[in-house]
Automatic annotation (TrEMBL):
InterPro entries: NT_sf, Polbeta. This is Polymerase beta nucleotidyltransferase domain-containing protein. Gene3D superfamilies: Beta Polymerase, domain 2. Residues 19-94 form the Polymerase beta nucleotidyltransferase domain.
Amino acid sequence: MRLSEFEQQVIKQSIYVLDEHAKIVLFGSRANDKARGGDIDLLIISDSIEHHHLGQIRWQLWEKLGEQKIDLVLSKRQLLNTFAQLVFEQGITL
């Protein structure tokens, strides 16, 4: 995983303030130690967080980590689509 401990903590804090029970899964190139560059791809599994919260989360991450490409995918616990299920199984849970 190519996220520092600080980056991981900032991500968790920015999401847990809205739902302390949310599951956060890193996927994509940052989940691969051998890859280079890349944006931060996160799957958020939560029954409390809504799509309109994603802008707030992204803004908090930019304030603390600097502006960079951050992709946020939101899924409800009981409604994991095929993509979210695959990410959950193969990604890295923070």
